[in-house]
Amino acid sequence: MTPTATAQEAQEETRAVYAGTGEWAEVTVDGETDMRVRINNFTIRDEVETDDGTLDAPEGEQWVVVNTTIRTLPGDDIRLGYTQWRLLTVGPQIPQPDDAAMRRADYKNMLPDETTHEKNDAEQYRIIFATDYTREMTFVIYPFGSQNHRPLVFSR
Questions:
Q1: What are the angstrom distances between the C-alpha of 13 and each of 1, 34, 77, 85, 123?
Q2: Which bin fits 31, alpha (ψ -120 to 50), beta or left (φ > 0)?
Q3: Is 25 exposed, middle or buried, given 0-12, 13-18 or 19+ CB atoms closer than 10 A?
Q4: Number of other CB atoms surrounding residue 105 within 10 Å
Q5: CB-based burial label for 88 (10 Å; 0-12, 13-18, 19+)
Q6: Which residues are bridge partners to 22 per DSSP?
């Protein structure tokens, strides 16, 4: 007979991991690889630099440029992508990283829409959101694709 998870075990499996900006949060991906994530800092801007000039934020919004470090420990390579990130703010919208800004911004270390992050590695990435409310922001990282791990939640 296959053991089934108890209600408490199931709740533990989906409970988010919380950290503040500048703090490390750690989860185990697919039961194999420890992933540590830290939001180093973020800036709020009206425009971002591109190869051919600048890209203005959409009308009534500003860019939020997030600088993050992701570190993996022994296990398997993991997949990452900017589509697993969300920005929670006061209001009804839940912004995802802005596709145009992510493709066109002329910054080093932009997190691609999909990449393989090797085990025992650390990388710095940037993610860009557009939002109309920048005072109370919470950043959330969900599992990428079919990978399994608890959500990571970062508050300022």
A1: 21, 15, 21, 19, 26
A2: left
A3: buried
A4: 20
A5: middle
A6: none
Residue 7 has pLDDT above 50, yes or no: no
Give the N- to C-terminal CA distance of the chain in Å, as an integer: 46
Residue-wise pLDDT tens digits, 53-76: 999 999 999 999 999 999 999 889
CATH number listed for the domain at residues 42-147: 2.60.40.1240
Q: What is the CA radius of gyration of the chain?
A: 17
Domain map of the chain by residue range?
42-147
CB proximity list for 136: less than 8 A, separation 6 or greater: 89, 90, 156
| DSSP reduced 3-state for 115 | strand
pTM of the prediction? 0.87
Contacting residues for 115 by C-beta, under 8 A, at least 6 apart: 79, 80, 81
